[in-house]
Amino acid sequence: MPRKSRVGPGRGTEMNRPPRNPSEPIISPNHWRTIILFGILVGLPVLLGYAAALIVFKMELRTVTSITFLSVAFARLFHVFNLRESGSHVFTNHITQNRYVWGALALCTLLLLAAVYIAPVAGILDVVQLSLRDWVYVLIISLTPLILGQIGLKTGLIH
Fold first, then answer.
1. Which of 106, 108, 109, 127 is most exposed, with the fewest beta carbons within 10 Å of its own?
2. CA–CA separation, 45 and 37 (whole Å)
3. Could you tell me the residue range of the domain that residue 100 belongs to?
């Protein structure tokens, strides 16, 4: 039976269903496909952004490393919006209406900014402060998995 909801409150009928067959895998082949697809969806834009920053834009290595670190982190944060229930509205769903999701996003964003702008932390992580142009690059890279994920959910390529 395909899973309709990735994360959320459920429909309230879960306990009425018979238990899963013990010989059936916990993670079905379809779930593995989705996991791998989302992994590629998050990883590939970051790797391509890293390569483009070094080769095409000729950015300094420490800047590129900082951009990559922040791109991975923000891509993972934005990815939560790809976990909405299949068929739910893009902007109004159990993920976007969950105050704990928004609180976690705010806290993680503050921690990432602290990692860059608090000198002792930045020194430990070996990251540098970024220019406005670099931050735009981070946003483009980190929003790409979200946008592609939403397209995949809308078209049925991801379910």
1. 106
2. 13
3. 25-155
pTM: 0.86
Q: Do 146 and 78 meet the contact criterion of CB atoms below 8 Å apart?
A: yes
Ramachandran sector of residue 126 (left: φ over 0; alpha: ψ -120 to 50; beta: rest):
left
Among 20, 17, 37, CA closest to 29: 37
Asked whether residue 10 is domain-assigned, the answer is no
pLDDT, tens digit (0-9, with 9 covering 90-100), for 17-50: 888 888 889 999 988 998 999 999 999 999 999 9
Number of domains into which the chain is organized: 1
Alpha-carbon distance of 46 to 84, in angstroms, equals: 23
Contact 92, 157 (CB under 8 A): no
